[in-house]
Fold this sequence. Notes:
The protein has twelve helices and 13 strands. The chain is α/β, with parallel strands linked by helices. The model has no long low-confidence stretch (mean pLDDT about 95).
Amino acid sequence: MLAExxxxxxxxxxxxEPLGSPSLRRSVxxxxxxxxxxxxxxxxxxxxxxxxxxxxxxxxxLPRGSTILLEKPSYLYSIHAFQSAGVKxxxxxxxxxxxxxxxxxxxxxxxxxxxLYTIPSFHNPTGIVxxxxxxxxxxxxxxxxxxxxxxxxxxxxxWLDSPPPPPLKALDREGRVLHLGTLSxxxxxxxxxxxxxxxxxxxxxxxxxxxxxxxxxxxxxQLAAAxxxxxxxxxxxxxxxxxxxxxxxEFMRQLLQAHFTELATWSIPAGGFYIWLSLxxxxxxxxxxxxxxxxxxxxxxxxxxxxxxxxxLRLSYAYASPEELRCGLPALAGIIKQNINRQS
Length: 344
């Protein structure tokens, strides 16, 4: 695809419009429609990855000292942009159907929450998919409260068994949902292309803040991303990627079955990159992290996603090679056993 671009005369690579390249925003608009999100290009802001979208929202939309409701555990606990902006978190419990909606109203009123943040499809770190009925309940309850939603859709394309229910943004009739998307997970982390979809006045405000920080995402990256989407490369790549992720997921399942049955429980996710491992016994996760690091293993421990966690690990089957998984998981099981014996 890049060779194809190189064979053509390149347009002048000057600064793009504040919202981002018009051609890329049109491409993203067409891509979003496949998941049920009808978004005019004027309601889309191109960002340098979804992480910058989170940073812009923290800076531009949330007053200092305000509270966000979110699932607990949640990826957002590991992102410092919100904490540094003085935003507080109030965690809500989950089950295998996703965010439990019974506490939303009471917690929103108690904390005077400014927003609900959620990852409904292949939740990071648990891998849970919010079911269709739960999504409808979330929209109904937050609608009655007038509570805006920040929907993180970073993983929604990475289904392995069947597509997830439509995003919350596809159910939004009031303009209350900001939707984050990215090419970093499915296509290329180094491309640094993401987007925010929302009401045009909000998107323009966020664009103004973005222009004050970086004058816009890379013109060359935006050109490449538009060609990636329009040329059919993205759909072809997703088909191949899903096949490889299914193989990786099955390989990790076999390794966990062989080495972790007496140590932990887990669920096999229907998509995304991660397996959320629940240890039978709580233990000091910082100590486990240090012991693993000394053995050459880098862990994502549960306390990154829930400060009080003492029994979860987020394992990825997407990044490490099969050989690294084959060696690393038995080694990790041995380190966990040593920690259990030390506590006995």
